Amino acid sequence: METLYHQTNKQIQEVQSLMGNLEKTDRQSVHLLENELQARIDQIFNHLERLEILASKEPPNRRQNAKLRVDQLKYDVQHLRSALQNFQHRRYAREAQEREREDLMSRTFTTNDADTSIPIDETLQFNSNLHNAHRGMDDLIGSGSSILNGLRDQRSTLKGTHKKMLDVANMLGLSNTVMRLIERRATQDKFIMIGGMLLTCVFMFLVIRYLG
C-alpha cells in the first residue's frame, strides 16, 4: 500500500504543477493539456479505489490512519478536478463570445432607399458591454460552482472523518462526554457549511440580477 500511496501522491503533485500552465498555454494546445490533465486525474481516481481496498485490509491498529490518508488524497484530487472543470467552462464561454464578435464584425451592413444609416459604433459598443457582462456572470457562476463543489466535498470528507473519529474514540475507550463534544463540533461545522452555501447562492443571485 505504501508504494501505491506515494505514487498517487506524486501524481497529484504533478497535476497541480501542470494546472499552473493552463493559463499560459496557447489556444491551439490548451485542449491537449486539458485532455492530459483529465487522463491523469482519472488514473488517480483508479489508484484511490485500489488504495481504499488496501486500507480496509490493513491491521486494525493501522486501518483508521490508512483510511484517513486515502481520504486526504481523494479530497485533493476532487479539488483539482473542480478547478479543471471551472477553467474549461470559462474557456468555452470566452471562445463562444469571440466567435460571436467575429461574426458581428464580418457582417455586411447596407442602407435602404431612404438612406437610413445603422449606428455601427453604438451597436458594437453595446454588444461589447453585453459580452463583458456575460463573461462576468460566467466567471461568477463558474467560481460559485467550484466553491459549492468544494463545500460538498468537504462535507463528505468531514462526515467520513467524523465517523472514523468516533470509531477511534470507541477503540480508545474515550468517555461519552468527549464523544458528545465531537458530535457537537461536527454539527456546528455542518451549519457553517450550509450557511456558506446559502450566502454564495444569494451573492450569485444578486450579481446576476444586477448585471441583467
Automatic annotation (TrEMBL):
Keyword Membrane (UniProt): yes
The record, for Gene3D superfamilies, names: 1.20.5.110
Give the membrane topology.
Single-pass type IV membrane protein
Cross-referenced Pfam families: V-SNARE_C
One GO molecular-function annotation for this sequence?
A: SNAP receptor activity
Coiled-coil regions listed = 5-54
Main subcellular localisation = endoplasmic reticulum
Domain of life from the UniProt record: Eukaryota
One annotated GO biological process: vesicle fusion
Keywords assigned by UniProt, alphabetized: Acetylation, Coiled coil, Endoplasmic reticulum, Golgi apparatus, Membrane, Protein transport, Transmembrane, Transmembrane helix, Transport
Family stated for the protein in its record:
Belongs to the GOSR2 family.
User: What functional role does this protein have?
Assistant: Involved in transport of proteins from the cis/medial-Golgi to the trans-Golgi network.
What is the official name of this protein in its record?
Golgi SNAP receptor complex member 2
Q: What is the lineage of its organism?
A: Eukaryota, Metazoa, Chordata, Craniata, Vertebrata
